[in-house]
Each structure stands twice: as C-alpha cells, then as structure tokens.
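User: Hey, quick favor. My workstation is busy. Could you predict this chain's structure for me?
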Amino acid sequence: MGKSRAQPPAEGIRLGIWELAPGIERANFFALLGAAFFSIGLMTLVGNLRPYLFNEMLAIPDDIQGRVSAAMDVVSEFPALILSGLVGAASDRIGRRAIYAMGFLILSVGYFLFPLAAFNWTLYALVFITACGASLISAMLSTVIADYPRETSRGKLVGICFFLNGLGVASLVGVAAQLPKIYLARGMTPFEAGQAAYWTIAALCLVPMVIVYRGLARQSPGQLEAREPLLATLRIGVFAARDIRIRLAYLSAAVSRASLAIISAFFFLWMVQAGKEQGMSAAEALSRGGGIFVAIQITATFWAIVVISFIDRIDRILTMAVASALACASYTAFGLVDDPFQPAMYFAAVFLGIGEMSGILASQALIGQVAPERGRGAVIGVFTLCGSLGIFLAAIVGGTLFDVWRPSAPYIVMGVTSGVLCVAATYTFWVTRPGGTHAAA
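Assistant: No problem, here it is.
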C-alpha cells in the first residue's frame, strides 16, 4: 500500500508571517505567489505594447489614437461585463485552477494572433479574445487571494501578492518595452520586431498556465460543495450588496481597476506622442517611457511591503479612506505634469506608485474580509464586474479627454474618482463604527 499524501492540519498551516486557511498546502501557497507575479503584468502588456502597434505596425494617425485606444478598452471590457459574475459563480462549482489556467491559455492565443490584426474589425476581435483571458485571470486572482489566508493574515497575504504583482509588472513591462528595440537591433523591420515581441509574450503566458493548473488547490475553502444552479450561485454575489461594506468594496473595485487600466492604456501613448514631438522614434520614446513606468511599479511594489506591516491592525474601511485620499492627490499631481520626460517626472511617479498600490491593497483586503465564505467566488465575481464597469467608464471619458484636452487628462479623471471613493469610505467608516447606524451590519 503506497504512502498517502500528507494533509495540512485541520486548523491550517503557518508559513512565516502567513497563516493559511484549513486545506491549503505549502505548494498551493507558492503556486499562488508564482501566479501573482505573472498575472497583472501579462494582462498589462496588452496596453503597454499598444503605442508600438499603433505607430509602427498599423500607422494610426496621432489625432485619433486616444479615441481608438479608448474604443479598444471599451471592447476589452465586454467580456468582463458578460463573464465576471458567471466566472466567479462557475469557479464555486468547478474549481479555481482550471478557469485560471484557461485564462492564461486564451491570453497566449490573443498575443500570438495580434500581429495579424489590421486597423479594422480584426483589431477589435483580437482585443475581445485577449480580454476573455484577462477576465478569467483577474477574477481568479482575486478569488484565490481571498480563499487562501486565515482572517488574521488576510492583509499580509494581499500585501505579498500585490508586491509580486508590482514586481511582475515592473519586470515584464521593463522587458517588453525593450523587445522591439532588441529585435530591431537584430536586423528586423519595425513590423517584424513587433511581431516577434508579441510572440515572445505569447510563449511566456504558458509558464503561469502550468503553475496554476499544477499548483493550486483542487478544492478551495470558499468553493461550494453542492452543485447549485449557476444563476442561483450568482445571486449570492448580487444580494451581498445589501451590506454597506460590500457596496463600498464594489465601488473600490471600479476605481482601483480603472486606475490600473488608465496607467496601462494611456501612459505609453502619452510618452510616444510627446517623444514624437521631440523628434524621437516610437521605439525610443517607448524605451524612455519604460523607465518612468518601471519607477511607478517599483514604488508600488515596495509600498506593498510597507503596508503589510500594519494593514491587519487597522480597520480596513479606514485604510480605504486614507488610501483613496493618497490616490486622489497623486493622480491629480501626475496629470498636471506638462513634459513627461523631465527629471521631476520620476518624483511624480513615486507618489503615483504609492497611490496606485494603496488603493489596490485596501480594495482587495476589504473584499476578502467582507465576502462570505459560501459563494465567495460569486461575490468576487461581482466585485470584478464592478471593476470592469469602472474601466469601461474611465476608458470612454479618459480617451476622449486624451484627444480633445491633454494626454495626461486620464490621470486627472482618476484623481477625481479617487476623491469620490474617499468620501464614500469616510461615510461608511462613520456609520459602521461602534454606535453607528450600521454597526451591526
């Protein structure tokens, strides 16, 4: 008779400062960390490669690039609007790892096919395909992060995962921004260099696909045992919004996801347009802008480590109010910069990184705390759906203002929306405090 596989203790295991939920093994924890490194970075590259695609592969005129980019972002949110709630509910029934792995596979196919696009319906079709994979990845990352910790370590696990998210974004974007330049130096034409860059990233997507499929738990703590109808599971997520804290979490998803999309979609477009005005090629502007983008992500990454030290000791709603105030100030200041290549841009990038990561960590920690264990995937599916709505609206408004006002306008938009979230969080903290009107909710 063969040896049976060692089971984690009923109360869950401890790894350093992280206490894991019952049923979660060390291998599952390390697989989550690996997935966290790749997930956001690989999704972000869709937007980061867009300026090179527009200028060197499709020759899209400068004066419509903001609106074309916004239209692509709108199309990219349709899969999320359609799938997010259903994906979360489905993961409660069939498991997280299969859906997570499928997301990376679809993303790989999308990157592989992108060089075949023209400036017509095929461009938007490939945006849609790639976005289907990104929707699955985004929903499952949030769900697995909520599944794996005990409540005493929730903020710490969110912190290390988003530290790795930031490290992955900085690393992958830093490399991807150089890929066209590297392939051009090997004698390729601008189109061939872009094609090779997309295909390199397509191959890279297969690495986390294997990690999540082989490493994540087959049965997560928040996964439903009973085979309830899919729409019945989805209703759990919808009706959970009766809780004022969950409503705040849903609003925070809209703002935090929109902020990530704004940085991804418009930053390099701004860099390339400013660079062309200063006589740079698209590849040169992309390379120079990559340094500033990496500064944003490195700051965000190490700020996550700072937040780990206190996030589990402070009320999550109060954290949300402070984080959104930081984001409001940093996005507004960043959006008011005129020359994006001046040295002061790196100083602004530091504050933007702090504001970006503060909002994301507060949002993820709050939804992980307030989402009920039963049907957690469905609740976080609706959380992801709200994030998609935020991206949808930010893309339309930001893309239009990018063309008709100033390229940095999307960041000013995010400053305003972060201010609205700060007001909502402050109100929620006030009414849910001991003695408040919703204290028992």
